Write a sequence for this structure.
């Protein structure tokens, strides 16, 4: 494959430049960092976002019995295990000849999935992103966190926690366990919803719906109140890809693929999920292990795209629940009907999706089909299958082939962060050029880069998180590779300077 | 959600599929096997990561034991009290125990129950690997300590 080089991706003479390494992703998420190469005048010459993703996990799956896979893949991510659980079972439904699954199983899985959307989106907004928006990019580190949110806006913080808790409870009553449920199996579900547990959640819905509406209000207010110089923050026009349902409806669990160009025109529509390899390829670059998906018709250089809330809210023609649809229309109107590519708008879109998730959960909790009925389907065995769902951060693809001995012979995963690889790199370069070029690197300036990354909330190679690992490190090297300065932010929030680099930093 | 909760909570977190990161959940599982069958005073919970909603798991407890793997320890395990603190964090995916207690304080408008952190020495976090021999040896020592903690008379608090 021909390597493609984009502006600021590779410096002309990197050996003569200083290196700044930002390791903004913490202990749980594995390894991720940003490298900046600057010349003697502090002009940005190269910017790269490095992320370690799941290649090892695919090999880990090969050779395992297929029925173990839906449970095993939950270990990919502690934040959205349900997404992997369901994508894997959807793919393996095809293998066991169990697709489509019975109505009851379909609805229980949807309930589980939308519970996942609610809990993950609530966590993201209230825990990760709202501190930046509430306190500003330049706020003290000690304030830019959920504790800061709780202290300054206690009711919003409480509602964020309760929304997440509600989503977790939806997952529990559908999957059977609070962590690593086993409810979804190839061909259907192994349990229905207990009526008493359903009723407990149903009683909470009026309050939960009000919290979700308030969350959209807050996100909208924060976005429309952004200072003028941040309105176009990290704006990176990109095509948008997601699943859509019948009529172009927003759809998270099952649908066909749609791609919309950056200017808003629909480029691909109704593309069957099982044929995804005819739509997208996976490019490689020599400086990172993470792949770069692209549309085959356009090639690696021009074919990159964005997935996730900002793409989904604009890719669909409508949201099939009334409250969220009204909010989508307000989002579109606020931007004059033009496509939106400023990454901070992602947070507003994410809260619209959260509201939609709560509405769908409400509909499904009212549906008697989730309580009983046939749960398993069987049919003619197939060699392989593809499962695509919209995970909280974007499109998630699982593909498996299974041998006659029931062991997995091949596995391919494309997670949302991989789809967004180029898009995130472009966003980071945009920020580096706009805010860091020619400037002395300071902590608030570095936070601008983190803000752009946080909008995507990259899901890295989860999930080690031992106490004592370093949440942030920045290393500055001279042209000879000598460490000139090193700053790390300890787990207690203290910033410590020294000349010993972070162990995760490696020359790339 | 309104059911009476057990007065003692042991909460361990970590990824069971990542080498020594499994130490927290492993200890909790082993402790549950040793103690919980004969006691309704103890609840054992595990998760991948400590998260904001876990503050709600602390409500109504007399005391709480957190268990996690820890790098950089010179001894098999360390024990310390945890108090609320506005600890800085900037990722979705984890929360420090001190920050969790601060969330509890802010959500409940009350002080959290006495909480202790049991940190077990860890070194390796490879995908698909089991905990190492040293980690398992350290785990056994930590488990003995946790068992005593769980069986302390009611009037004794750490």
């Amino acid at each position: 494959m021909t390597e493609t080089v984009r502006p600021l991706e590779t410096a002309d003479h990197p050996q003569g430049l200083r290196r700044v390494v930002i390791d903004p992703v913490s202990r749980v998420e594995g390894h991720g960092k940003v490298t900046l190469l600057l010349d003697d005048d502090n002009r940005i010459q190269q910017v790269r976002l490095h992320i370690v993703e799941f290649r090892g996990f695919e090999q880990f799956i090969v050779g395992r019995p297929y029925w173990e896979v839906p449970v095993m893949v939950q270990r990919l991510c502690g934040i959205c295990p349900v997404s992997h659980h369901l994508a894997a079972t959807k793919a393996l439904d095809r293998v066991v000849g169990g697709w489509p699954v019975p109505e009851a199983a379909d609805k229980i899985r949807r309930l589980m999935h939308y519970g996942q959307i609610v809990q993950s989106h609530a966590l993201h907004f209230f825990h990760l992103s709202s501190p930046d928006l509430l306190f500003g990019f330049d706020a003290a580190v000690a304030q830019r966190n959920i504790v800061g949110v709780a202290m300054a806006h206690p009711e919003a913080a409480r509602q964020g926690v309760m929304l997440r808790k509600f989503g977790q409870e939806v997952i529990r009553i559908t999957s059977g366990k609070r962590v690593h449920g086993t409810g979804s199996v190839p061909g259907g579900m192994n349990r229905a919803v207990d009526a008493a547990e359903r009723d407990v959640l149903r009683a909470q819905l009026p309050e939960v719906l009000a919290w979700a509406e308030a969350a959209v209000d807050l996100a909208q207010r924060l976005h429309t109140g952004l200072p003028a110089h941040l309105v176009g923050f990290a704006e990176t026009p990109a095509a948008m890809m997601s699943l859509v349902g019948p009529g172009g409806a927003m759809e998270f669990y099952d649908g066909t693929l749609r791609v919309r160009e950056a200017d808003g025109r629909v480029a691909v529509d109704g593309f069957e999920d099982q044929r995804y390899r005819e739509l997208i390829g996976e490019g490689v670059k020599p400086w990172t292990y993470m792949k770069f998906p692209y549309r085959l018709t356009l090639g690696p250089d021009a074919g990159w795209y964005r997935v996730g809330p900002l793409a989904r809210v604009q890719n669909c023609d409508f949201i099939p629940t009334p409250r969220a649809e009204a909010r989508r229309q307000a989002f579109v109107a606020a931007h004059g009907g033009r496509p939106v590519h400023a990454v901070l708008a992602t947070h507003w879109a994410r809260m619209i999706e959260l509201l939609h998730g709560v509405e769908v959960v409400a509909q499904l909790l009212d549906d008697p089909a989730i309580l009983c009925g046939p749960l398993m389907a069987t049919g003619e065995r197939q060699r392989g299958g593809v499962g695509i769902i919209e995970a909280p951060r974007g499109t998630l693809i699982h593909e498996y082939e299974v041998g006659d001995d029931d062991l997995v012979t091949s596995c391919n995963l494309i997670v949302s962060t991989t789809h967004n690889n180029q898009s995130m790199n472009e966003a980071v370069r945009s920020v580096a050029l706009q805010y860091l070029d020619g400037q002395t690197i300071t902590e608030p300036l570095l936070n601008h880069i983190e803000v752009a990354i946080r909008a995507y909330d990259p899901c890295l190679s989860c999930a080690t998180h031992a106490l004592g690992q370093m949440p942030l490190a920045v290393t500055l090297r001279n042209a000879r590779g000598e460490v000139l300065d090193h700053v790390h932010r300890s787990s207690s929030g203290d910033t410590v300077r020294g000349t010993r680099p972070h162990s995760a930093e490696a020359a790339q | 959600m309104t059911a009476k909760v057990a007065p003692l909570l042991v909460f361990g977190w970590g990824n069971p599929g990542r080498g020594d990161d499994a130490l927290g959940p492993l200890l909790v599982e082993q402790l549950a096997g040793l103690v919980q069958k004969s006691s309704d005073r103890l609840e054992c919970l595990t998760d991948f990561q400590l998260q904001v909603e876990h503050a709600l798991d602390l409500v109504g407890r007399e005391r709480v034991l957190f268990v996690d793997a820890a790098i950089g320890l010179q001894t098999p395990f360390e024990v310390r009290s945890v108090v609320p603190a506005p600890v800085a964090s900037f990722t979705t995916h984890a929360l420090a125990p001190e920050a969790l207690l601060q969330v509890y304080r802010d959500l409940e408008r009350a002080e959290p129950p006495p909480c202790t952190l049991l940190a077990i020495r860890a070194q390796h976090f490879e995908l698909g690997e089991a905990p190492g021999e040293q980690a398992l040896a350290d785990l056994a020592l930590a488990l003995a300590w946790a068992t005593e903690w769980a069986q302390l008379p009611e009037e004794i608090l750490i």
In short: Chain A is about 40% helix and 20% strand. Chain A touches chain B through 59 residues (CB under 8 Å). Residues 101-234+342-376 of chain A form a domain with the Cytochrome-c3 Hydrogenase; chain B fold (CATH 1.10.645.10). The longest strand of chain A covers residues 394-402.
